[in-house]
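TOPIC: backbone geometry
CONTENTS: sequence, structure tokens:
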Amino acid sequence: MAKLTVYQDEDPLGRGEWFGYVTGAHGHIVHNFGPFPAEEAACRHGRSLIGQSADLSDVHVEQ
């Protein structure tokens, strides 16, 4: 099953943009995406890549 992870750019000179990636069943990254201005936008885009609903409850957000 695919796993969606999103994270915020931590570059102190950056704009705080959100990026993400989707990993497949074996843990390999199969999609990278971003930048997005907000966490929710990145989550929704990632969900659309893996063909899942807009439910964001199981999205992993890296801190």
User: Anything to note?
Assistant: Residues 17 and 52 are 23 Å apart (CA to CA). The domain at 3-56 is CATH 3.30.160.160 (Double Stranded RNA Binding Domain). The chain has a mean pLDDT of 84.
